[in-house]
Design goal:
By secondary structure, the chain is of the alpha/beta class. It has helices at residues 3-13, 18-30, 37-44, 84-93, 132-142, 159-167, 183-187, 208-217, 226-238, and strands spanning 52-56, 76-81, 100-104, 117-122, 143-154, 193-205, 245-257. It has a single domain, classed as Vaccinia Virus protein VP39 (Rossmann fold, 3-Layer(aba) Sandwich). It is globular and about 55 Å long.
């Protein structure tokens, strides 16, 4: 798949939150860790009153649902996404607050002045960006000196890799370009300090129909008709032990100081 095709596929997939919500629900249902990932991420952020906060790739706004009232009041919080549909869904999902605003924006060309924010957040999306170094340069540009950038991503042990192994590596996304293992080296040129915070976890799947729905929600999935689904389910059933399919899951976030 070339970049143009990849961008087209991703834009179609993230036009609305439907596919994203399938994956979020799957992780919430089957994760070994009982604390939701978004709650764990939120616990890493050290908010102070009067901050200016930018989120890149806000999706449906799920990170902030039920939390805006619990954090110190910021001076401004701007949620952005490259998809106008996602921006509208986030706006509809969150309460109207005087400090909260929404905007369509590309991480590779952020429409904000230099040194505009105390904190920038970009979760589970940098591996979708065509030019990662350009995007990270933009984050550093809009971040104030001493400001903090949080960017969550997965490690090398992911659901996608597990599925890739079963399917022969041809029907799912290529290996992601920004992981917990290789992200620090990419971040280092742009920030004075880079820290990797890992959260070990696993998925304990008991209903393979849910996993199949997850697989079909992935970008670039192709070639799975009813016969393909049946063959895949047969392979997955063969890997179950006592009615449970265990899938490695490695997620975390980088904490970067400018």
């Amino acid at each position: 798949m070339n970049r143009m095709q990849d961008a087209h596929t991703l834009n179609a997939q993230y036009k609305t939150a439907h596919s994203l919500n399938i994956r979020i629900a799957f992780h919430q249902k089957y994760s070994l860790q009982t604390q939701p990932f978004h709650d764990w991420l939120f616990s890493q952020y050290a908010f102070t009153p009067g901050m200016r906060i930018l989120e890149i790739g806000c999706g449906s706004g799920s990170l902030w649902q039920g939390k805006l009232e619990k954090m110190p009041v910021p001076q401004a919080m701007i949620l952005t996404d490259v998809s106008p549909g996602m921006v509208e869904e986030a706006k509809a999902a969150l309460p109207p607050l005087p400090f909260l605003s929404f905007r369509t924006a590309d991480m590779q060309a952020l429409p904000f002045p230099d040194a505009s924010f105390d904190m920038v957040i970009a979760n589970m999306m940098i591996y979708h960006v065509p030019d990662v170094q350009k995007a990270l340069w933009e984050v550093s540009r809009v971040l104030k000196k001493g400001g903090v950038f949080f960017c969550a991503t997965s490690g090398e042990k992911t659901v996608v890799d597990y599925i890739r192994e079963i399917l022969g590596g041809e029907k799912v996304l290529p290996h992601i370009s920004f992981t917990l293992q290789n992200g620090a080296a990419q971040l280092a040129p742009h920030f004075s300090k880079v820290e990797c915070l890992k959260r070990q976890d696993a998925l304990m799947v008991t209903d393979l129909a849910d996993l199949l729905a997850y697989i079909h929600s992935l970008a670039s999935i192709s070639g799975l008709d009813e016969a393909g689904d049946a063959a895949l389910l047969s392979k997955l059933e063969g890997r179950m032990e006592k009615g449970v399919l265990t899938i490695p899951k490695e997620y975390g976030t980088f904490r970067c100081v400018k």
